[in-house]
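Worked example 2:
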Amino acid sequence: MTDWKKARICWLSAAAGGRKQLPTGPRYSTIAKFNSEHEQNRWSVVIEFDQQSDETNCVESRVSFLAPEAPSHLLQPESQFQLMEGARVVAIVEMLPDAKFQAHMNGAYHKSTPAESEELADDELQPVSFGSNRHRG
């Protein structure tokens, strides 16, 4: 249960069949239902909350399987699954990219090791401007 992955959890409202009150502790464990036709599609997950839910009832957190033999590929970035309480869906989970990928997507081009930095040419690190600059020739 040590392979934690970043996720965004959006809780369904009570009117939509979700919980009347969101979990208040730092950890929450329940059954996750995956859309997998080729293997078992329900696994126990543990969730650690990084912060409180926002005004849309969504929260970033860390997710891990309870069972070490669970298929880790189900927690890959951009995959989605449902959190269940009994037969009831209480939340939708979207797996987020890891920190390195997210930093790149946010414009942070720094690589973590010198060897990785050498893989990029200097012109790949230059910011691109989409202003009204005309080509000066």
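Residues 5-95 form a domain with the Elongation Factor Tu (Ef-tu); domain 3 fold (CATH 2.40.30.10). The longest helix spans residues 99-105.
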